[in-house]
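Illustration 12: Malto-oligosyltrehalose trehalohydrolase.
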Amino acid sequence: MADHEFSVWAPRPERVRLDVDGALHPMTRGDDDWWHARVDAAPDARYGFVLDDDPTVLPDPRSPRQPGGVHERSQLWSPRADAWTDDGWQGRSIEGAVIYELHIGTFTTEGTFDSAIDKLDQLVELGVDFVEVMPVNAFSGTHGWGYDGVLWYAVHEPYGGPDGLVRFVDACHARGLGVLIDAVFNHLGPSGNYLPKYGPYLSTGSNPWGESINIADAGADQVRRYILDCALRWMRDFHADGLRLDAVHALVDTTAVHILEELSAETDALSTELGHPLSLVAESDMNDPRLITPREQGGLGMTAQWDDDIHHAIHSAVSGERQGYYGDFGTLATLADTLRHGYFHAGTYSSFRGRRHGRPLDTATIPATRLLAYTLTHDQVGNRAIGDRPSQNLTTGQLAVKAALALGSPYTAMLFMGEEWASSSPFQFFSSHPEPELARATAEGRKREFAEHGWDADEIPDPQDPATFERSKLDWAETTEGDHARLRAFYRDLIALRRDEPDMADPWLDHLRVEFDENAGWFVMHRGALAIACNLRAEPVDAPVTGEVVLAWDTPSVGEQTTTLPGHSVAVLRQTG
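Figure caption equivalent — predicted structure in token form:
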């Protein structure tokens, strides 16, 4: 037992009592609405707070651990003194890196941090620089995507809890891999959210996922601090090398200093304190370059952002899909425009939105490495009606073309787990809400949403069915089989080329040159002396480029003036003269 200081911000209740292992203790309210109590407690004591006359023991909003789930008491936790072995880790910048997005629950059959560690050497061999884990904060139920978190400071117990995350990050650093953690600060999940009982954590507004977080209304100062301290906790206490910030366009901040700018400043200060780089990668639907413009130049100071326009341009050009938000994409001209300028919608009309969208990127001052290029993400797979991957609809050659366009580009690159071997597993939307009404509403809402777009409701997987979760797990045995193994080798060689060739390190879009023939179906991206020549058609085509073949998917025939590319293939050629 040891004397321990317990505290909680709770402006709404008139009385707060502390429950430690079933014993109640009074708490004292300060002028700042923080309640405090010093109590003898074991290092792993279970505790919570009792508000006013309601006898329910609520978890700590800043709970370090939730061994019984998000509805139960919190538990004191701190890592063992010998838990970390990464003192020699110097960190690394994400700019120009290759990031690997994964979901702990489906990355392996076991779905834990420890089982994920067993696969890290394969990522190192592939050439990955960072792993980006989908949210690991505490959420209700045993499995889900993680975006319904309600206790942001705690780590989801079925994955292995906080000790498991420590082991995972430490193992990544031992192998030279950086770690990004996906953090959700724009909404709270529908099950286990007790924060409004404590204070004004929610605003009067809403977004597609629920009520918005109060970052600009009355009482917002402590809510902002709650967000900032949580973000810094992942990087300071769990040694993460940065964060992926979910849907920052849903963070409605009308104050003079945007919370992202504040987070950027505090992250830079922590980086200086720790002595190694820390990165903030924002997911944004805004196409607003101010997000990735340095603070000293009037921007918000994010290190980088996801770029869905690049995804849409590559995917629609290769696959031919033109529905929904792909409607403005699909041509080689659109692909060329997007790769050259970063955003396709840059103050231009978006048919999907029915209005002008975006703002031009200053390619002379903002390097391409501040934008992420990818051929798929958890969203672009899981938010499809049946969670089907491109590998379930395209030829392996088409997948190779997509990979070459993303990994061969000057942008920071990102893969989604299993794409490198054309995984046959879908990544479907799954949940495990324990409340029957919420479970039913989730399943019915999913079917209704896609039925409105013409899908047969019976084809839509039930998110609550455990089989939906099980289907979404990777089958690692595929990595050594046939075209799966061949594609993985191609990805590995592309990443090595990206790393080893000086021309591939040029981050300036003004230096990028592309040429294409819309009718013939060939597309060439020039990176210095290297030409990445793609055939997006099923028939062979002659592309007006020649040189030494450095890497190819299917063997091209190089002539004096042109190179014949087999159908659905790509070749990287080194040009001379």
